[in-house]
Design a protein that fits this description.
single chain, 2 domains, 3-stranded antiparallel β-sheet
């Protein structure tokens, strides 16, 4: 079993710091729509970013395992939150991945790698809202 520890310290008003031993401290506030600052991370930003970055790292595992010639990876994620009868709830997180691969057969393998990453990413598996992942691979020109 693995454990991941963080600590939060409130610094007054709506601001706080989140810390993890040996890593940079992040200043956090609520999202701007709830009175927070635009230039600070919110827990909502961190959740969407955590899912997106976990998918990347899981894709990288499968890229290596499947020996895919990937030369570029970029993604964008959007998390959708709504008021529900049970309070504010994420309704879904969608991630669009764009990759550049070296050969046509790598495009097919990349699609499989992303499917595997979507299935095995532990962070996306931990959230209760649906997480949709799509990939668009282009072949690098010679």
């Amino acid at each position: 079993m693995w454990e991941y520890k963080t600590s939060v310290k409130w610094s007054g008003g709506e601001a706080a710091d989140i810390r993890c031993d040996g890593k940079p401290t992040l200043d956090i506030t609520p999202p701007p729509e709830f009175g927070g600052k635009k230039d600070r991370w919110s827990p909502e930003d961190m959740l969407v970013g955590a899912v997106e970055s976990c998918v990347l790292l899981t894709v990288l595992y499968f890229v290596d395992k499947m020996k895919i010639g990937m030369t570029s990876y970029e993604s964008e994620a959007v998390g959708r939150m709504e008021r529900t009868a049970n309070g504010l709830r994420f309704q879904g997180i969608d991630i669009v991945i764009r990759t550049v691969v070296q050969a046509e057969e790598d495009s097919e393998k990349m699609a499989k790698a992303v499917q595997q990453a979507e299935k095995f990413c532990p962070v996306s598996a931990a959230v209760e809202c649906p997480v949709g992942v799509s990939v668009e691979s282009t072949v690098a020109s010679a």
